[in-house]
């Protein structure tokens, strides 16, 4: 799972409606997998990204530092967009787990695939 | 021929052997690709790369079409075996083992569109006593609606079992806020006839949602 998806993911346990984002990553194994650079896509996605969460996630996973704030010239800032591309679209969580801060549900990640199935009492 | 959704729940029916058979069958693959293209066309996206959701992505046959067209996607499927095949085939999309009937969990406005190929009829299955079709559809459509950008579309190609099932699906989707309806391509051809449920997540200001034309 790429970090772009983690940044948009929230817990879907029924009635877990507040404090359900971001899912806390634990014991993560991270892998960098090259992807085509697509600045237009990044610019389109920027308004949807929760920036402070992304900054924290990158720090926690020991990734190269990203700026604390989105630069004003983001759309034309090649170095910034290249860095963002690497963090959002090339950084994959291969193993580990994600924990909901609200209800505590643990979503395990194996071979890059999160298991999002819920138990009967959670639906 | 009996309908696969009558034989076993999807995560059982699409076990390891079926998952591979399904993906390696070139006839199935080309039909799936064709329907994925049509679903993508019906999304009516503006120019440029988008972030899309594929419900019941299976082994990634439809996701590959989204990739080819320059989009970034996330897919979910209830069958871990199907997801395994997708992973081995190294599709670009992020993959989740997930039961859409339990809801989808993304922040509001995440996706620019959603497609789904040959899956929706499975959601109507009452294969376990806990799986009440109406409640599952309700959970699915309400959480999907929230995860879509305003006025984004969700297009589902599916194989409805009967008119009651179509009515149930449209009723629940409408109650969850969606507009739209059913589109039948090639209605007079037994072979080519295809059903697409075309839903709009709200309206863009000053614009009326119009159901696209069938082929
Ligand atoms: Zn939760």
UniProtKB/TrEMBL annotation, chain A:
One of its GO terms (molecular function) is protein heterodimerization activity. Gene3D superfamilies: 2.20.25.10. InterPro entries: Trm112, Trm112-like. GO terms for biological process: rRNA (guanine-N7)-methylation; tRNA methylation. Pfam families: Trm112p (PF03966). It comes from the Eukaryota. PANTHER family: MULTIFUNCTIONAL METHYLTRANSFERASE SUBUNIT TRM112-LIKE PROTEIN, UPF0315 PROTEIN-RELATED. Belongs to the TRM112 family. Interacts with TRM9. This is Trm112p-like protein. It comes from Phycomyces blakesleeanus (strain ATCC 8743b / DSM 1359 / FGSC 10004 / NBRC 33097 / NRRL 1555).
């Amino acid at each position: 799972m790429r970090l772009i998806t983690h940044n948009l993911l929230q817990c879907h346990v029924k009635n877990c409606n507040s404090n359900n984002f971001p899912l806390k990553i634990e014991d993560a194994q991270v892998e960098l997998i090259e992807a085509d650079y697509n600045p237009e896509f990044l610019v389109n996605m920027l308004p949807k990204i929760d920036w402070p969460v992304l900054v924290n996630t990158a720090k926690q996973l020991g990734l190269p530092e990203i700026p604390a704030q989105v630069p004003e010239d983001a759309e034309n800032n090649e170095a910034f967009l290249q860095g963002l591309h690497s963090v959002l679209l090339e950084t994959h969580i291969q193993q580990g787990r994600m924990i909901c801060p609200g209800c505590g549900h643990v979503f395990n990640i194996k071979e890059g695939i999160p298991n999002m199935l819920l138990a009967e009492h959670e639906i | 021929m009996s309908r696969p959704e009558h034989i076993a729940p999807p995560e059982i029916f699409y076990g390891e052997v079926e998952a591979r058979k399904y993906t390696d069958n070139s006839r199935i693959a080309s039909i799936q690709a064709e329907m994925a293209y049509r679903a993508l066309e019906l999304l009516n996206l503006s120019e440029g790369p988008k972030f899309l959701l594929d419900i019941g992505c299976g082994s990634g046959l439809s996701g590959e079409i989204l990739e080819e067209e320059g989009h970034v996607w996330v897919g979910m499927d209830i069958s871990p075996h199907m997801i395994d095949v997708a992973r081995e085939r190294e599709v670009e999309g992020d993959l989740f083992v997930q039961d859409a009937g339990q809801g989808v969990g993304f922040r509001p406005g995440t996706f620019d569109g959603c497609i789904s190929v040959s899956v929706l009829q499975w959601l109507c299955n009452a294969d376990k006593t806990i799986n009440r079709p109406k409640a599952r559809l309700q959970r699915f459509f309400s959480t999907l609606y929230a995860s879509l950008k305003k006025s984004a579309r969700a297009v589902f190609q599916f194989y409805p079992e009967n008119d009651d099932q179509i009515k149930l699906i449209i009723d629940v989707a409408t109650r969850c806020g969606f507009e739209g309806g059913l589109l039948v391509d090639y209605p007079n051809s037994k072979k080519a006839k295809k059903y697409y449920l075309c839903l709009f997540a709200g309206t863009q200001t000053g614009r009326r949602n119009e159901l696209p034309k069938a082929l």
